[in-house]
What we know:
single chain, alpha+beta, 2 domains, 3-stranded antiparallel sheet, two-stranded antiparallel ribbon
Amino acid sequence: MKYALYYTTTGQVVQWQDDEVYGYNEPEGNFARIELNDPLPVDFDVNAQPSGYWVIDGVLTQTAPPAPLSDVAMRAGWAVTAKRADLLAEGVALAGGRRFRPTDADLARLAPIALNHAALGIAAVDVLLDQPPVWYGIAAVDLAVAYSAFIVKREACYSNERLHLEAIAALLAAEDRAGLEEYDATTGWPT
């Protein structure tokens, strides 16, 4: 092989081209071509994808460049959002070891009952609880307590997620790679 076609954004080699470069289209968009001066290793596999090679500062290397800072920040943000989703999926504990894990649809259905059960004259409600879901009858008063506890937990989770995402954005703006790579997405969450 005499030439390597690579992404200019990541430097990753995507195609190896032989001596007759004129048989290939000129690179366009996010692609560029580099002429190879050194022979490739004997065990090199021209068909391997990903290739395991990058072009960094005009030099072919097998050492991957660091991920773009925006990608590092994005992964940190994903970790924060995943933590929030995990905590909400846990729900809140009820008496007897059951858990109240409402979906948004459940919350919409149960909110009027949880908040106004006395005025509506409702004493008990059937809800799906636990995993796998099982129908339970629950006293409207207990539902109101569980609903309130879940809403408080949910809002605390969203508030903490916002704080984390703002901190990540500040680290990205400061171009603090070490801070982003070591970001701890597990702090400050409600229990």
